[in-house]
Amino acid sequence: MTLIDLQPLFDFLGRFTGGPENALVIVLAAVKIGILLGHVLGIIPLIIWLERKIIAFVQDRPGPNRVGPFGILQGIVDGVKLLMKEDFIPSGADRSLYLLAPALVLVPAFLGMCIIPFGPVIEGQLLFDIYTLFGLQGMWTGQSQLALAVTNPNVGILYVFAITSVAVYGITLAGWSSENKWSLLGGIRASAQMVSYEISLSLSIIGVLLVAGSLNLYDIIGNQDGGMIPVLHWNVWAQPVAFLIFLVAIFAETNRLPFDLAEGEAELTGGFHTEYSSMKFALFFLAEYANMITASAICATLFFGGYLLIPQEMVVNVLDGILGAFAGSQAGLPYSRSLAEVLAILGAPLGLALKIFLFMVLFIVVRAIWPRMRYDQVMSLGWKVLLVAAIANLVVTALGMGVLTWVGVARAGADASPEAIQASIDSVTKNWKFTIGIVTFAILVVVDRWHYVARRKRLTSKYRNYALVPATKVTATAG
Amino acid sequence: MSGFSASALSCGRLDRCKGFPIDGVTSPRPYGAHFVNPFTDFRDSFGLKPMIALHALTASTSISEAYLPVLVMLVVAVGFAVVNLILSRVLGIRKPNDVKLEPYECGVPTIGSARTQVNVRFYLVALLFLLFDMEVIYIIAWALSVRQNAAVAGFMPFAMILMAVYMAILLVGLLYEWKKGALSWT
Q1: A202 neighbourhood in chain B, CB within 8 Å
Q2: What is the value of pTM for the model shown?
Q3: How many domains does chain B have?
């Protein structure tokens, strides 16, 4: 069944893009970008509203409650207000760099979102049906794939690092070009902090790469799928220490509390965006939230199975049962299993959205309840704790994978074919990867307790001449 | 000879690459379908084979599939930023005066330029970042290579010994930086 014949259109577009296949890629990318940006830009005002509400709840005040029900439209109104605000450039500023900086922060934030896999890869008969619907049967090859991600490069996770690192330039340039001491300090602080935590971030990810064996995000998700309960295959069980390091590092990378030294309003007024007004400031703000969403999505993909929540086949079977029974009861209603499959695919992004939402709530709650750290504390946490922990995690993971590989080879038998050996290794590493998690987490707990006890001992011996006042007495005198 | 290390960065997985031409063999092909002796064949893959990865990158059809969408997103993102900047320029009021255009330093009159020298520790952090980031890139290539050649006999111990040596050098460097006080902020 062909709904509309788009083949002539793509033949025409193909003249300018070097072939109808490229035209198809570009048009599909435009559609996917539209959907992605529509959702992200639509959700950011709501997230900002939610953040203000949650912080208000923690601080026992009402929060925004005037615009719309419960003040839910506050974010949109703030956006319009920022658009109408005066747009000025300080007299001392380097004009071109000053204007370039917000764009240089926003563009990497948007480009980083490209990689988020928000749904499964469509291929085979279902994709052929979809191609047929638009009259594109001629362009379907046996290997055609439609990934529900804007792009799916083989380098996968490396792409995110490469792109998001560029944002450091934007922040540094914003701080330097404004000709303001607060801005300069904020920009320098932000850049030093972001590069420091990027090391721990990428080192923690290598543990996941070792477990999953691929850079490609779809491969990493596929490695976390299987069985009736995909939750058991999540990488967070195999790499709990890597997850904790990653979590702390993304807070620092997105300049959120407790690491928002770059814009600590108590000391630097606004940090690198002190001199920015109107939409230029809004672009920084938007980029921060876009980065938070990207970071949450990457974290969900690497450690929590991405869009997978319930087995896709189970969803398809249930939907097929319900829809098939309904179509059967209504005489003459055309129905095929493809409809259930399409609905299951369209529902897949909900799993990712749920995980992103939970991470955003975590971001907000941490901001609400955590005090800001001192800069030397931030740097020593990054270089002396997280870096060492990430290297230790990597070493233990590598040794664990070595042992699991050895077990896999031994299980396959001495005279097995290479394919059989590889299959055996794959199944052993997938089913027993949680043992690595248990070992690494146990080591973390032991080291943490040891460090705590040692520190207590050191401090008590250092301050043993000071009389310690019991806490009850302090409250009694204060009252 | 397969060139297993050369393929690690060009592809997420060797068998996912369409038309990956190595020695005239096109994929998909299974893991470990070739025997490699790491002690004799390794120098080939380091010395001669890296061109294969380059060739695969340019010859593979999936490159346009993967990076044309990024190009589209780049256009959209730049367009979004430029349109917003122009819109606020057009819609916002503009009444600049000398006081408004001064740097905002909490009402205190500005003294001197803001483009002064900053603490040398920031440069030290940048240098350390460069060192460690390069190390991370090598470890990523190693991690993928280990997983993709796990079935090759003798590869795993060889790779583990290599990494142990590499890690030892890295840790000695880290210890030196620590003892020299490069990692302490105060």
Answers
A1: 133, 136, 140
A2: 0.85
A3: 1
